[in-house]
Amino acid sequence: MGIVVQKYGGSSLADADAIKRVARRIVEIKKAGNDVVVAVSAMGDTTDDLYDLANGVSPLPPAREMDMLLTAGERISMALVAMAISDLGYTARSFTGSQAGVITDAVHGKAKIIDVTPGRITEALGEGHIVIVAGFQGVSADTKEITTLGRGGTDTTAVALAAALEADVCEIYTDVDGVFTADPRIVPSARKLDRVSYEEMLELAACGAKILHLRCVEYGRRYGIPIHVRSSFSRLEGTWVVDDPARDETAQGETVEQPIIAGVAHDRSEAKITVVGVPDKVGEAARIFEALADAQINLDMIVQNVSAAATSLTDISFTLPRSDGQTAMTALARIQAEVGYDKLLYDDKIGKISLIGAGMRSHPGITSKFFAAIASAGVNIEMISTSEIRISVIVDEKDVDDAVRSTHTAFDLDADEVEAVVYGGTGR
Amino acid sequence: MGIVVQKYGGSSLADADAIKRVARRIVEIKKAGNDVVVAVSAMGDTTDDLYDLANGVSPLPPAREMDMLLTAGERISMALVAMAISDLGYTARSFTGSQAGVITDAVHGKAKIIDVTPGRITEALGEGHIVIVAGFQGVSADTKEITTLGRGGTDTTAVALAAALEADVCEIYTDVDGVFTADPRIVPSARKLDRVSYEEMLELAACGAKILHLRCVEYGRRYGIPIHVRSSFSRLEGTWVVDDPARDETAQGETVEQPIIAGVAHDRSEAKITVVGVPDKVGEAARIFEALADAQINLDMIVQNVSAAATSLTDISFTLPRSDGQTAMTALARIQAEVGYDKLLYDDKIGKISLIGAGMRSHPGITSKFFAAIASAGVNIEMISTSEIRISVIVDEKDVDDAVRSTHTAFDLDADEVEAVVYGGTGR
């Protein structure tokens, strides 16, 4: 008898019927002889409704009270799931993040879990109950304040509980069948991955695949928790995120030990800023990035051209979240005289395409094949960045779909048949 | 600088505008140099909405989970009130019942407060914050489970906090101007009472006046907390519930030391059961009331006719909440053979009229004047019960309004001018 931790997002808990369906699914696992712990998000649009309420009373609500407000959402859904389970003849106990021992730092709105002390959960399991835990929330270690973990936080709650309870598996239920080789809305022939490594999943999540929260994957990797991403609307096996992904190799068109490519991700949420005519002296670039760091801006890709010897001037380009674009431009404008650059260019009509696969480490020629695929789609590459298991390029936003499709085909990722899915984000 | 505890019900927190109005009111008290602690109910219809959600997933939800669900309502409203206060330039900290130290027994759905340990409240007040507390809820002493106090519980939360904090006053804000000599919907000339004693208020609450929760008044009396019942929609002084009510005597048409009558209450929520032909032997009546007690039924008035010597049979009548009628009839039917009574009569078309006043203790003739007033309205009295400061009669339900009006006039309670109010219940 093992412990199974499950997570259900808001779309899986949209109304009474959905909650009853989830309850039946939970009871099945219990019937099979497992202890079951379930992390739930708020129902459907509850979080948006609560945001609307807050905006109705204050344009800039204090973060502490915002957390107090938003955590009501999971409180409602967890109680309803527990009721639906009891209606099936099983007993359930719901616990808030605080009661479940989810201890965080004190950063309201984006707290990080620093410990899980699941004494009450273990006790309830020992008494034969199914345990339902409010996702997305915790309590701060020192100040005992209610905190929230930010968007996608319930994924992280589930994996953190799985780690603390030494669960056999953490099942993340969502509204798609698993992790795909590309966004099926763009590439209808995208295939569901049976297995993917933590590293690849981290790169996929960081590069725009919204299926799993980044911190959830980090947590899973650190504690070695197998994460099973699957649909709450079907009975299909989903995608296993594990340490050693023995993916079905023939489907990849490869017969080597490790398949090369996990998938093609894309991201339309970034903007590009170019600082033109920066004096090519020691410390100038540092001054620019210092100013951006002071403004709390996370940069993604950074490219510096080699300076033409004649001018001793260089251009520095970088990408960042579009939502930070205005802040970054203001911060840079403030240091123009000091740095002595020529001008700033801002472009938010860009997209990022990323090719991800642990196997590319030992396979030369991946980069050239990737660039050739993009060129064959008639798409121009504006910036390039690489990691051990990822190559990313920036292209014109309008060219994203073509570039993704061409790449997907070039690496033999297309399925024989189109799998009918809708690719969407998870709740919180 | 004193401590003021306020309570706002759901009708005072119906929407964003109402919440902002409440916030301004709270800030005024703070500005005047007081420490302010506010207990809030759930917004408007939130509680009903949560009940609907629960019924959607389970016909008989477990009480523990029902409490978990319902307490989300106050969590939402307290966070919103705190936000609205911060928008006015003041700082507020909201606390759940558990965080506020409201310790209860473990009876879900109708828990009783057994202690208040307001350490976090005192600390927050010391830091200059306004404190908002979720009403209606607490945490059980031993099991650390979330509990609710039942309908009207937020009144009790407020008074309990006032007692624990040794507050100067507990202000109960509602949607009427105070406590009236009768329900103004029935008696348009009813007057607002400036002051009323705890004892009288207890009798009024027990006899159908829905303005204050019974347990709230009991708590106030035990700890000597002055309770000020007033409207959140006006600036008028309301009704003070205090130990020694120096009511305005002339308005009562009396010039004695203490006015005789506080008001006339009525109640249409009871039913009457008559057990006909009970053998007039020792123990038979006890067996009947034992069966009712076993069925957890609270009886109100009880009347036993003197038996006719010829038959040695007696009739026993009692009143009880209509909602318990079916349960009581079933319990009694089960013991018919054992007790040997003749038959049961059930009547849920009754009403109770109660005349309440601490002064009636020392005034003979009140009873006869009361009965005469009812007779003059052409109304027949079916049952009578009295206490030190109350006389209650049971009449036909259709005669309730006439009997109340006639009594109100007979005791000179009518105001010279009709005060424009709508008399309604408080939230929870």
From TrEMBL, chains A, B:
GO terms for biological process: diaminopimelate biosynthetic process; homoserine biosynthetic process; lysine biosynthetic process via diaminopimelate; threonine biosynthetic process. Its EC number is 2.7.2.4. One of its GO terms (cellular component) is cytosol. Keywords: Amino-acid biosynthesis, ATP-binding, Diaminopimelate biosynthesis, Kinase, Lysine biosynthesis, Nucleotide-binding, Transferase. SUPFAM superfamilies: ACT-like, Carbamate kinase-like. Pathway: Amino-acid biosynthesis; L-threonine biosynthesis; L-threonine from L-aspartate: step 1/5; Amino-acid biosynthesis; L-methionine biosynthesis via de novo pathway; L-homoserine from L-aspartate: step 1/3; Amino-acid biosynthesis; L-lysine biosynthesis via DAP pathway; (S)-tetrahydrodipicolinate from L-aspartate: step 1/4. InterPro entries: AceGlu_kinase-like_sf, ACT-like_dom_sf, ACT_Aspartokinase, ACT_dom, AKii-LysC-BS, Asp/Glu/Uridylate_kinase, Asp_kin_monofn, Asp_kinase. It catalyses: L-aspartate + ATP = 4-phospho-L-aspartate + ADP. Catalyzes the phosphorylation of the beta-carboxyl group of aspartic acid with ATP to yield 4-phospho-L-aspartate, which is involved in the branched biosynthetic pathway leading to the biosynthesis of amino acids lysine, threonine, isoleucine and methionine. This is Aspartokinase. It comes from uncultured Nocardioides sp. The lineage of its organism: Bacteria, Bacillati, Actinomycetota, Actinomycetes, Propionibacteriales.
